[in-house]
Specification:
The protein is of the alpha+beta class. It is about 35% helix and about 20% strand. It has 3 domains: about 20-135, Acyl-CoA dehydrogenase/oxidase, N-terminal domain (Butyryl-Coa Dehydrogenase, subunit A, domain 1), CATH 1.10.540; about 140-245, Butyryl-CoA Dehydrogenase, subunit A, domain 2; about 255-355, no CATH class. It has helices at about 25-45, 45-55, 60-70, 85-100, 100-120, 125-135, 250-255, 255-275, 300-305, 330-335, and strands spanning about 140-145, 160-165, 165-180, 185-190, 195-200, 210, 225-235, 285-295, 315-320, 350-355.
Length: about 350
């Protein structure tokens, strides 16, 4: 009996290592290209300087530009939102993340957290007051869950909201809040006698302040803040009426792209090093990347990847993990998943890439 001949592996496209592009429609590819062009024009020429200075200058003007191309709350419907698909939103966040994590954080906190909480759980008055302005970038939102002592654990939350007549009075602190200092509205979670509730807090309310956190080690081209609530008095209808307990599932659709884009960004670094390595004066130059990639094909192997990375100059291993189901999820399940390669069931591999340029 003759030995089985292994099937030929498809050639790896270094610009699409997970093989996602053939799965996308023309409209989805157009969304991706629009955001990529925006980042190339508005972000990439400046982001290195912003990062070094630890600031995001003209953030309001930038937010309005993001609103003009429909990126803010783009996966929501009505109230001036674009009403696009989860795939469209995921592709947009991938491109934003490829430019800078801080930029993606601005957009995903605005859309996936602040806007979504109001859109899903707010009153009609909340929605009509805030969502059209936030979708246009005329108003900026933040999301107050994480605390200095409790982190993002609601069970340990210390921020409180108590009744005072018909009003609510909020006291407490939130930490590491994206957009806080420049926000017009904050969705703040606080402990009440009825459990944890969400509140729509206009940031001009007396007792509310949001000092910016400086000297960060990451997300430097981003506004990150502490929220201080010192006897902040709100009307009875400031509470989100449709939820008890913080609802954060939409965070993943905006924050999953950082992990997905690491492989592409790392590959760009490898190619640059291999193409221009002769101009590098520091020897040896070491670089490494560790990234999860959900692949739409059988587990990739070193002999497939290595030629793309320059043969012997690439040192690579693949560690297989437990595979996902063999069949793609049904349409409804896929729609609920982040718009990354994980939206298609496949093997998962940990790609470890290390290279030396001498």
């Amino acid at each position: 009996m003759s030995p089985a001949v292994p099937s030929a592996r498809p050639r790896l496209d270094p610009h699409d290592p997970a093989g996602i592009d053939p799965l996308l429609s023309e409209e989805e590819l157009a969304v991706r290209q629009t955001v990529r062009a925006f980042c190339a024009d508005k972000i990439l020429p400046h982001v290195a300087g912003w990062y070094e200075k630890g600031e995001l200058p003209a953030v309001r003007e930038l937010t309005r530009e993001l609103g003009k191309i429909g990126l803010l709350g783009m996966h929501l419907t009505g109230y001036g939102c674009a009403g696009m698909s989860a795939v469209d939103y995921g592709l947009a966040c991938l491109e934003l993340e490829a430019a800078d994590s801080g930029l993606r954080s601005l957009v995903s906190v605005q859309g996936s957290l602040a806007m979504y909480a109001i859109w899903r759980f707010g009153s009609e008055a909340h929605k009509t007051e805030w969502l059209p302005r936030m979708a246009a970038g005329e108003a900026i939102g933040c999301f107050g869950l994480t605390e200095p002592d409790a982190g993002s654990d609601p069970a340990s939350m210390r921020t409180s909201a108590s009744r005072s007549g018909d009003d609510w009075v909020l006291n407490g602190r939130k930490m590491w809040i994206t957009n806080g200092t420049v926000a017009d509205v904050a969705v703040v979670w606080a402990r009440t006698d009825d459990g944890i509730r969400g509140f729509v807090v206009p940031t001009e309310t007396p007792g509310f302040s949001a000092p910016e956190i400086k000297h960060k080690g990451s997300l430097r081209a981003s506004v990150t803040s502490e929220l201080v609530l010192d006897s902040v008095r709100l009307p009875h209808d400031a509470v989100l009426p449709e939820v008890t307990g913080p609802y954060c599932s939409q965070t993943r659709s905006g924050a999953a792209p950082p992990e997905a884009w690491l492989s592409t960004v790392a590959l760009d670094c490898v190619i640059d090093a291999l193409l221009f390595g002769s101009q590098v004066t520091v020897t040896p130059l070491w670089a490494a990347s560790y990234c999860w990639v959900s692949c739409c094909r059988p587990a990739l192997s070193a002999d497939v990847i290595a030629p793309v990375l320059g043969g012997s100059t690439a040192l690579m291993t693949t560690d297989p993990l437990p595979p996902l189901p063999d069949e793609p999820p049904d349409e409804q399940a896929a729609a609920r998943m982040p718009a990354t390669a994980s939206a298609v069931a496949a093997d998962r591999v940990l790609l470890r890439v290390a290279w030396v340029v001498s």
